[in-house]
Amino acid sequence: MTDYLTMTRDAYDTFAETYASEVPARFAKDPVLRSMLSAFAAQVTGPVMEVGCGPGHVTAHLASLGLSVSGTDLSPRMIEVARRTYPDLQFSVASMTALDLADGTLGGLVSWWSLLHLPPDVVPVAFAEFRRVLAPDGLLVVGFAVGDEILRPESAYGHDVTFDAYMRQPKDVEAHLTQSGFAVTATMTIIGPKRPGVVLMAQKQ
């Protein structure tokens, strides 16, 4: 496993319980962000996967919108929490750059701030993998933090951990999507308390 994957997995295994006690509540209080997922749910056909699902709260929200959805995450501990919290849903451990799915399996895929730890040269690899597992005209939703920095915190969620966190510019993400065979169909910008975020919806071409 490459260094960035090991570092990310170990960090999320360490703070999985604390993360699960804080982040889902913030998601539940943000109707603007959830509106893009509602638009996605209204258009997608077929099974959906959330990659980088963490403790499973977004996967569960997608299920509440009537979708046949599963979640996958690099962190085994996060998947343990997700399975415990949402026992009726399916969760698995995997890297988003190597999904255990046949070509054209999914109608939709959601990457909800899960690009955060991917080095810039790995983003096209992930997008190529997303395109591979999507059926023709399949839909993709990608959310990410906006900026130019690369952050390496020494603690998170009350634990001493470290990982690289990559902020991204929307024009760069859109360019990667286009080059990977997607057409961007919708863009949402969120002015957050710390930094802006962007959610893009794109369709496989």
Tell me what you see in this structure.
By secondary structure, the chain is of the alpha/beta class. The protein has one domain: Vaccinia Virus protein VP39 (Rossmann fold), CATH 3.40.50. It is built from 6 helices and 9 strands, in the order H-H-E-H-E-H-E-E-H-E-E-E-H-E-E. The strands form 2 sheets. A 7-stranded mixed beta sheet has the order 3-2-1-4-5-9-8, sandwiched between helices. Strand 8 and strand 9 form a beta hairpin. The radius of gyration is 16 Å and the shape is globular. The protein starts with a helix and ends with a strand. Pfam families: Methyltransf_25. Keywords: Methyltransferase, Transferase. InterPro entries: Methyltransf_25, SAM-dependent_MTases_sf. Residues 48-138 form the Methyltransferase domain.
Distinctive features:
single chain; 205 residues; alpha/beta; Rossmann fold; two-stranded antiparallel sheet; 6 helices; 9 strands; globular; methyltransferase activity; Methyltransf_25; SAM-dependent methyltransferase; SAM-dependent_MTases_sf; methyltransferase
